[in-house]
Design a protein that fits this description.
Blueprint lengths: L3 E9 L13 H10 L4 E7 L5 H7 L6 E9 L5 E5 L7 H9 L15 E3 L5 E4 L12 H10 L3 E4 L9 H5 L10 E4 L5 H8 L7 E3 L14 E5 L4 H9 L5 E4 L1
Parallel strand pairs: 1-2, 2-3, 7-8, 8-9
Antiparallel strand pairs: 1-10, 3-4, 4-7, 5-6, 10-11
């Protein structure tokens, strides 16, 4: 099987995230992703994943691959990205996440509506959980949960001054079985590698962390792979079998 290059942004929020713009509905996400020349995106809402299937359905026939996922907030208030294969049932994982969120309802006066939508951008409901909060899962438990459900676990935006392993702990635990670390668009890939490469031997990626349409694709990676699948991304991150991952 031949290898080809795929441009990917694997950190995108929708209107389900409490800090996501209401304009981040499925058709808008797909339209902007294609306009930015992306081949693969991941839907990574805060502590939730109900809109991932709708974005995937909206992308059907466009050539865009959509990975379901979420951005899990740990007990330390560090964020961990989780990516899964298309079509993965994330219900069992979400049940664990919701059981470990604060037992308080979403305060809609403090955050945007946590909107659940269908592939035609129709509102089907609202997530009642406090998605803006941290779970009671520590970083090791969060990574273990992601791996048990077949996903990849990536430390989010380690260069940020809040909600990252580095900001919360001051370091990346050596025994934490992460698959990669992410840096934000605030730094170029070269700057990030120089500043944070000495902290960890893990692969480094850079994505948009988009909360509004115009941010999609502002930072992306290029993967040399056989197909747009989680198994191939895992190989590319590890540099195995000729697969590669680098800044786009």
């Amino acid at each position: 099987m031949g290898l080809r290059r795929f441009r990917a942004d694997l950190h995108i929020h929708t209107c389900l995230s409490p800090c996501g713009e209401l304009s981040m509905y499925p058709s808008a996400v797909v339209k902007e992703a294609r306009a930015r020349g992306l081949d693969i995106i991941a839907v990574t809402d805060h502590n939730a994943a109900e809109n991932a299937a709708a974005v995937a359905e909206a992308a059907a026939g466009t050539g865009l691959t959509v990975l379901p996922g979420l951005e899990l907030a740990t007990e330390e208030e560090a964020h961990i990205l989780a990516w899964f294969d298309p079509g993965t049932d994330l219900g069992p994982l979400l049940a664990v996440v919701y059981a470990n969120l604060p037992d308080v309802p979403s305060r809609r006066s403090l955050v945007r509506e946590q909107v659940i939508v269908d592939a035609e951008d129709g509102v089907t409901g609202f997530n009642p959980h406090c998605l803006i909060g941290a779970t009671r899962l520590d970083a090791a438990a969060a990574v273990g949960l992601i791996h048990r459900h077949g996903g990849l676990a990536v430390a989010s935006h380690i260069d940020r001054q809040a909600f990252s392993l580095v900001s919360q702990l001051g370091f990346i635990p050596a025994g934490l079985e992460l698959d990669a670390v992410e840096v934000s668009p605030l730094l170029s890939f070269a700057e990030a590698r120089a500043a944070y490469g000495p902290l960890t031997p893990l692969p480094m990626v850079r994505f948009s962390d988009a909360h509004r349409p115009e941010e999609i694709g502002r930072a992306a990676m290029e993967f040399l792979m056989a197909e747009p699948s989680l198994a191939e991304i895992r190989k590319a991150l590890a540099g195995r079998d000729g697969r590669e991952a680098g800044p786009s």
